[in-house]
Structure formats: structure tokens, C-alpha cells
Amino acid sequence: MSSYLAPNWVDRNLLNPLATSLGMASTLAVRTRRTGRTQTLPVNVFDHDGREYLVSVRGESQWVRNLRAAGTCELRRRGATRTLSVHEVPAGERAPIVEAYRRRWASQVSRFFRALPDPADHPVFVLRAA
To answer: What residue ranges are annotated as transmembrane (predicted)?
Structure first.
């Protein structure tokens, strides 16, 4: 299933820039699959069972598609930049990661999971040093 929740004006223009400028979130930088430009957006890096993950709370977003195509990304936070390779977690293996992520970031993400409750609708990527 391919589901996507588009960000509204407040998220795009107020909350996302605020989260990154205050250091509340990391910035994901990934090359776009069509133009090769760099797309940036705030993300919560999730530490779970000794690994780092990115979870798409909005579903099949453009950054998800770009990350699949690129296979690598940069994560920026408080002046530090890390270059990482990514591996997508198969849909059937996402549930425990998504549920733990949901509990950890509940105050920020619960609205997305009410709209898309199935863990399979939330792409998950394992991050590894490139």
C-alpha cells in the first residue's frame, strides 16, 4: 500500500524550520532522484536495539523515494555532519521498530499514526556508517 500525508503550511514553514534551528531534530540531506539537487528536512533519528533508524511518519514521501534511489545520505546536527548508507527494513519487519518509535516520539508523531495506523505504511531505514 502506498500512503502519504502531505505536510501542511504550518509544518512546512514554521514547525520544521524551528525544530532544526533549535537543535530539536537532525537534518536529513539526500540527493533527489530526478535533478540531483540536495533535499533537506528535519528528522528524528531513532536509536533502537543498538541501531539507528529513520522512520517516515508521513508514509511514502519524496524523501523516502529519494533515499531509496540514493542509498546514502547526510545527517546534520549541531554543526556535525555524518555520511551514512541506508538499508530499508522490509514491510513485514517494521512493526516492532515503528511501535517503539511511536512510543518514543508520541508527542510529536501521534497524529500521523492515527491517520496511518498500519506499520507497513511507514518506511523504515537502518543507518550505517558509509
So the answer is: none
- How many domains does the structure of the chain reveal? 1
Q: Copy the grid coordinates of residue 52.
A: 539507528
Domain with residue 36: its CATH number is: 2.30.110.10
Q: From first to last of the 130 residues of the chain, give the pLDDT tens digit.
A: 578 888 888 888 888 788 777 777 899 999 999 999 999 999 999 999 999 999 999 999 999 999 999 999 999 998 999 999 999 999 999 999 999 999 999 999 999 999 999 999 999 999 999 8
The H-or-E segment that residue 73 falls in is strand 72-77
Angle between helices 106-115 and 95-104 (to 10 degrees): 130
Tell how strand 26-31 and strand 51-55 pair up: unpaired
